Amino acid sequence: MSQLLGTTSWVIPGTYYENVEYITRKFRNFEFIELLVYTWDDDTYRLFEQEKEHLRKIALERQIKYTVHLPTDNITNVLNAFKYLEMNLDIVNYVLHPFEDCTEKDKKLFRALLSHPKISIENLKERVFNHLRTVFDVGHHILGAKVENSFIDNIVEIHMMGVIEGKDHQKLDLETLDKVYQILSGRLFTVEYLCFEIFDEDELEQSLELWEEFKDKIYNTGSIE
């Protein structure tokens, strides 16, 4: 299975659909969009109600897929967003932050959600939670808790970005790419979904160029030297 490149729904000021339309028109490299759904309130619900038909239509027309970053505030919003999106859009992967500092009831809900085959768990700066499907966030790993081989073996999605002077979500840089390659080796190029979490369109474009140059160099020489 070939690797799919994607980016987030926060590249230009605007709604989910406005970002998807712009990104798929300007960046032909991208084959999926990560819909960032960091909470689930009335405004978010109404926006998806307004845009879901447009999102379905453009996905078919431009041959793209959707992943989702589920809410990070509480497990109730996670479940409500998950249920709605499963019913209304074709989502190939859900990215979930681990919920551990919560009530026993919420822990049970979290564990139940983990059994769904589309759910994947992202590493955080504060901690790493192992699961059968994991998401490797480059910035979180470099700046915080380190993932181990048991986590790496289960990666289904990579969140790619530059990490410069202690800040993540920056323009991709060669030093960061070298570090990631040392960790993942050839898996860097075979994990199914690679999402550029860079929120500036010019920096995103430059990051894509560096990624392609780096990948070509590895394939042609087998080395980063």
Structure, briefly:
This protein is an alpha/beta fold and 225 residues long.
Question: Mind explaining what this structure looks like?
Answer:
With 225 residues, the protein is of the alpha/beta class. It has a single domain (2-220), classed as TIM Barrel (Alpha-Beta Barrel), CATH 3.20.20. Helices cover 44% and strands 20% of the residues. It contains eight helices and ten strands. The chain has helices at 16-26, 42-61, 75-88, 104-114, 138-143, 149-152, 174-184, 201-221, and strands at residues 4-8, 32-36, 65-69, 91-96, 119-122, 134-137, 155-160, 162-164, 167-170, 193-196. The protein has an eight-stranded parallel beta barrel with strand order 1-2-3-4-5-6-7-10. A two-stranded antiparallel ribbon has the order 8-9. α1 (16-26) packs parallel to α2. The longest helix is centred in the last third of the chain and has 21 residues, at 201-221. This is Sugar phosphate isomerase/epimerase.
Overall mean confidence score, pLDDT: 96
- Give the total of beta strands: 10
What is the share of helical residues? 40-55%
Report the order of strands and helices. EHEHEHEHEEHHEEEHEH
Radius of gyration: 17 Å
**Numbering strands along the chain, what is their spatial order in the largest sheet?**
1-2-3-4-5-6-7-10
Question: What is the third-level CATH name, the topology?
Answer: TIM Barrel
Q: How many separate structural domains?
A: 1
CATH architecture: Alpha-Beta Barrel
Protein name: Sugar phosphate isomerase/epimerase
